[in-house]
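Milestone M4 deliverable, item 7.
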Amino acid sequence: MSDTLFPDLLDNSVAVTTERYAAILGLAPSKGARSPILWNAAFAVAGMDAVMHPFDVNEAKLPGLVAALKADPRYIGGSVAVPHKQGLVPLLDRLEPEAERIGAVNAIYRDGEDLVGANTDGAGALAQLQEVVDDLAGRHAIVLGLGGAGLAVAAYLAANVASLRLANRTAETATAFAERLGGKVRAVGMPNSSADLRGVNLIVNCTSVGHQDGDQASSLGDNSEALLDAMPDDTVVYDIIYQPAETELLRQAKVIGLVTLNGLGMNLDQAVIAFEKANPGRLSIDEIRDAMQSAG
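Output delivered:
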């Protein structure tokens, strides 16, 4: 039996035929979000009668959708895509402490009648960086962009690098979050010259610039190639975007010979953690990761 879900709230058509379901909530996750592929592979290995669906929802209908999901016991949780990572915060019953600290969620899970918000973006990003950067604790980093994912990445980096600069097109956001994190974190403007990046040897892009195939823009702007060329030879450039696998920023950095890393691994790790939260005890973390990796 097929049940079409929330036609008045969603911008895409979703038909549920399983006992339970998960969802990725975003403006348009139906246009290529990877989470359903990963979660559905894990559901299959766990032998669960469940599927993750993409839910395209605009900001105005988000409160109604959250209320409808809470009222539907078939909904077990899922993930959150742009631009709703911050907008969901006041709509959930409660947040995990880390999500509270960050002020954004990228995962939801059901706890009884409550919907709980979590943030696994930062943990996923940190795990990937620790695999590539041996001396992470000695790195001087800059995070570009403080949307929901950027806030999470910055919060985790703050405790694991020597110093951290936060750059955002809305300067007030960077200033407020730097004050919130405190210590070795400070707000700066978006870099326009090599002087703005002096002392930096880890660049992390958390903006959406370069997200579309064929996008020739770099998150460092029109002067990107010159800025990268002036960076130290041991600089690592990390772009949390994974579609496309090589953004213009990463292409430019690779040509110069800098170490580069995209967001594919982060996307996997955050999904692994989020799945375990929504389905505790079904599979071990290693089993979830193996299932999701096999899905590509």
